[in-house]
Amino acid sequence: MTSMNHLRNKVAVVGVGNTPYGNFPHKSDYALGADAFKAALVDSGLEKHEIDGLVTCRVPYYARMGEVLGLDPRWTLAMPGHGRMSGMAIIEAMLAIESGAADHVALIYTNIGRSRRMNYGGDDSASVWDPWGFTSPGAAHAMMFRMHMQRYGTTTRQLAEVSVAFRQHAILNPDAVMKKPMTIDDHEEARPIAEPLRLLDYCLINDGAVCMILTSAERAKDLRKPPVLITGAGGRDAFRRSAVANFDPDMWFTEAQDTSRQVYEMAGVGPDDVDALMCYDNFSPTVLFSLEGFGYCKRGESGAFVEGGRLALGGALPTNTDGGHLSNSYMQGWALNIEAVRQLRGECGIRQVPGCEVVHYVATTPCTRSIIYTRA
Amino acid sequence: MSYGTPVPDGDPLMEPFWQNAREHRLSVQCCRDCGDRHFPPSPVCPSCLSEEQDWEVVSGKATLISWVTFHRAYWDVLQSQLPYDVCLVALEEGPLLMSNFLGPRPENAREGLPLRVAFDAVSDHLTLPKFVAA
Ligand SMILES: [Zn+2]
User: Fold this and answer.
1) How many A from CA of B27 to the centre of ligand 1?
2) Position B2 in a domain
3) Which CATH architecture describes the domain A5-116+204-375?
4) What is the ipTM of this complex?
5) Ligand 1 centre from A144 Cα, in Å?
6) Of A260, A291, A328, B112, whose CA is between 20 and 30 Å from B128?
7) What is the average per-residue pLDDT within B41-55?
8) Assigned domain for B27 exists
9) Which domain range does residue B105 map to?
10) What are the start-end ranges of the H helices in chain A?
């Protein structure tokens, strides 16, 4: 099989920006997108006219985004607002830059789900299973976590470790939405939503926008900030077993293993080399499935693995140091990718991982994607 | 068809499934060319891409994979049923089905528990295949 290994360290992230996160009923997607784009442009040191590639994600209409920003790119890609799209979009942008389709690509993600009362269930996501009352991506993850509990003896107190660690990080992040301290008991006593999951296993729903700017590693050398390189990337989709949305009877283990082989081989690193993990966390169980699928621990052992604050700053594997989707912001993977860049630049202040050189982004979903970033 | 939870777009592909259910038969789509059984139904066979698709009545035997208890209703009609369970079962013939327990959840519910289909006429027009301990 061919690979992307020859693209190791060829493309760099040179600009990142984000809006505040919260509830902004008077701001449109385009207004939020413009704020994030301006921030990323300043961060990169590029001039607006140098942007000749555009990726929009969850933006209602890509052309309106381009119109608002005054861009006429030679390469544009519009992606839907699914969490799995962030990693996919970044890999697409890497390929566009390496192929010569574009020199400087701006990737813009916007979300106004909070102020427009998006439900993520019921009529917002109609499916064949509605007559039995099955809906919502959270319930799909609850199904998988129940299987994990039954097969491996994993407990909800172990699952709580994930939410508790990420909340500790959010408290250190000035941008984060959730700042109230949380204990394992708080998690256990939270309102059940789709048991065995409770409120504190669920991602936030908030408004905001994120922008990343990518270019070739060669061009990145002359820009404002030290470039962060895309050192590894990989992916595998699981559509054949996707009849239940956001669910997989094998918790995407095969796809995660396949993706991990690709990303580690391309990057030339393994789990032991990773200084910080950015793990897509729409629901807390995904983190456990990711740790197993990407070889951080053996299959079935993620519950014990996360005990004792291993994922917290100061632990062996600092994960989602911005607070993740559970406590920072529901930016569907995008905020985690800019956190990866900021950690590698050493810009994270009191939540900085010391000596951070390798950061791993993982999204274990029906479109599993992974990216390894390193400092140039 | 609906009793408050929508059947999306009144999917014509699903019509034989609902017709069979009203007559207390559980069915899945079966490929006339390669014999692949699948559910939900597909316009072509996901295995061989044939358009020659039949509906096959299955045994109704299944095993439990998992279940969740909903404490939040995303449709008003389910508000009065809270908390309610949804179970995921594997049919003996292969396909997975999201469903409910008919009556209370089996006390010894766990992955692998043998189940059998039972039918619940929730309205004049809609009969839902559900499951009980075998
Ligand atoms: Zn066939």
Assistant:
1) 17
2) no
3) 3-Layer(aba) Sandwich (3.40)
4) 0.95
5) 29
6) B112
7) 97
8) yes
9) 12-133
10) 29-44, 62-69, 85-99, 137-152, 156-171, 184-189, 217-220, 253-267, 284-293, 302-305, 334-345
